[in-house]
Amino acid sequence: MIHEVFSTLTARSGADHNLPKVITIVGGNGRMGKFFNNQLTAAGHRVNIVGSNWQGADSLLPQADLVLISVPIESTCEIIERTAQYLTPHTALADITSIKIEPVRAMLEHHSGAVMGLHPMFGPSVESFAQQKVVVCSGRNDAAFDWLLNLMRNQQAELIFSTPEEHDQMMVMIQATRHFCRLTQAVYLAQEKIDIDKSLSMSSPVYRQEIDILKRLLNQNPQLCIDIMLATEERCQAIKSLADTYNRLARLIEKKDREELIKEIESTQNFFSKQ
Ligand SMILES: NC(=O)c1ccc[n+]([C@@H]2O[C@H](COP(=O)([O-])OP(=O)(O)OC[C@H]3O[C@@H](n4cnc5c(N)ncnc54)[C@H](OP(=O)(O)O)[C@@H]3O)[C@@H](O)[C@H]2O)c1
């Protein structure tokens, strides 16, 4: 009750930016959840966790100043809807899902308080927000998140403000098709039983970097890679179109068609030179 009155007053005055916040992370035992827990706790805030058994949800969700959703992409919207049932308008609700249109829409639909979509453009192995990019999508009442954005800024994070639509469109290329290329390359190396250590012993630095990236991808939970590729129909179509491009070029290679291959390179050079 006291907390509620205090939250209402401070939310109205907007004057509590420096006070420790009470935060509940839904999915806080997961990899990104742990990262946010560490950062928020180190900054002096009090962090509670709701896991997949939802133990403590009735008390930990309604009392929070901020609820942060950090759960698998596929179940995010359903979990947002479930979470919102526990919240009053005084709680700010944010998510860190790698897609933004559907989660932001779900938060706005099911929660009447402050809403913001975030996408950290890094994995859980980093030590802080320093030099990392975070995409920020406004939902409602951005001011309620000033303290959180300032925490990231103070650690030298770069915040990129975008709409959910622009974010998702960019991530088709930045994440979905890239994951497919890397996965294909990794599957191919395994299928061909390549001696990776031997190949590294005579490789260029770029090849070594590529292998490191493939290893990082393979060390992640496979679910995340798959969710990133399958998250939207647009992503599935883009991956299909990329595979068609592979096939078109592979046919030119098969036919040893130098002329057409050079034309492909020249038209692509032309495109890149205009960027
Ligand atoms: N990993 C990355 O590199 C990365 C980068 C940027 C953004 N993201 C985004 O961050 C989010 C989390 O990714 P992650 O890699 O941290 O995943 P993760 O390690 O699999 O963690 C997900 C957490 O969600 C919890 N969870 C699953 N179902 C739940 C439910 N029904 N109710 C409540 N909690 C539930 C799990 O709880 P239990 O532990 O109790 O099972 C788990 O701890 C995703 O949306 C992803 O797109 C990830």
TrEMBL record:
Q: Which parts pass through the membrane? A: none
Q: To which protein family does this belong?
A: Belongs to the prephenate/arogenate dehydrogenase family.
Pfam families the UniProt entry points to: PDH_C, PDH_N
UniProt GO MF annotations:
NAD+ binding; prephenate dehydrogenase (NAD+) activity; prephenate dehydrogenase (NADP+) activity
- Where the record annotates domain Prephenate/arogenate dehydrogenase, the positions are 21-275
PROSITE patterns in UniProt: PDH_ADH
PANTHER family cross-referenced by the UniProt entry? PREPHENATE DEHYDROGENASE, PREPHENATE DEHYDROGENASE [NADP(+)]
Could you list this entry's UniProt keywords, alphabetically sorted.
Answer: Oxidoreductase
**Which GO biological process categories is it annotated with?**
tyrosine biosynthetic process
* Lineage, uppermost ranks: Bacteria, Bacillati, Cyanobacteriota, Cyanophyceae, Nostocales
Any idea what this protein is called?
A: Prephenate/arogenate dehydrogenase domain-containing protein
